[in-house]
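Dear colleague,

Thank you for sharing your sequence with our group. We've completed the structure prediction you requested, and as agreed, I am returning the results in plain text so they can be pasted directly into your records. Please verify that the sequence below matches your submission; if there's any discrepancy, let me know and we will rerun it promptly.
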Amino acid sequence: MKIKVVLVLIIISFGLFSCEKDEDGKYADYLVAKPLKITKAEFKEGVDIIAPMPIDESGKIYSYENYIFINDKYKGVHVIDNTNPSSPKKIAFIKIAGNVDISVKDDYLYADSITDLMVLDISNIQNIKIINRLENVLRDNVVWPAADFYEYGEIDYENEMIIGWETVTERRLVEDYEERFGREIDVVFNMETDASSVGQGGSLARFKIVDDYLYAVDSHNINVFNIEDLGNPEDLEDVYAGFDIETIFNRGNYLFLGSMRGMYIYDITTPATPTFVSEFEHGTACDPVVVDGDYAYVTLRGGNECGATESGLFIVDISDIANPVLEKTYPLEGPYGLGIKDEKLFICDGAAGLKVYDKTDVADLKQLNHFKNIDTFDVIPLENQLLMVGDEVLYQYEYLNNNIKLISTLELN
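Please find the predicted structure tokens below.
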């Protein structure tokens, strides 16, 4: 009996091996994007102020006065009282369907809700009020992820909306992947220098307030709003900016847009009509950017989702704003956000942790700290402390002369 069992197992194993051998070259692993949907009724009723709740997927981070706002991807914003950085407290959740970004000026919070722009009064943080909703002003705000296949499934466009995408790795026929590029994809979507108090976002932000204007980037455009009347933003004409726009950063009279193809620089001397100045191309990779002095610091994340095969830090000389030039590159594991405080450069290197550098000499960065065994996403360097979010945890660090020290953590889930 034992001999028969062993023989059967050998035959099965041989059959499986033969099957794999037959399929060799026919299949490969691909990134598949699948839509996240809600009903139009849920979307219209999808904004509310409720009690604190566990986070599902931590997204971008934003700081305003004594409060920290952390996006729960596509669901809303967690509000944290940070009056005492050693002991932050969750105090509320702003439920916003399809939300990924916010920005705040003088107690008015602006947030995206898929294609709508929401305006909330947060002057009394215990009694947040919804005061305005501009419909369909963020027309291309549902960002397409980098993927090999897009599966739309059954979508009832009369009653449903796409709020975002999730990506998974699946084994698919190579033949199907090759045929994909011969077909047209056709999908219809229904869709800090003045006296004001303006909050601060991280390097992954898509919203940016500069004086009386809110700039919100989507995959292709700079959406421009005049917010001189804070409660009643005026939707101005969009400015086409290219493809795969991911992030926005402001320095002086310039906007720096990070895309999967490069860094685009726009002049906002005339704030209502940003004008193209120059670009720095780096190939295809996920790309946030921050700027300090004569240099732009760009982290490129490679891998299947982002296109590039290698990850790293690009330091770009922008002393001639019309002609950005690559100054230096440094290898990294899989970076996301980054930030600068004086001569310190902070890089969230994904699962490789938080890395802190002395950037006095950009040609020879010196590593000051490396906080390992944490999954990092984005940072905000404030005047007195560093905020970082990653893996459903809020971290806060204290600046020291030559390094930084952890002062608190807050579990968000």
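Summary note from our side: The longest strand covers residues 160-173.

Kind regards,
the structure core
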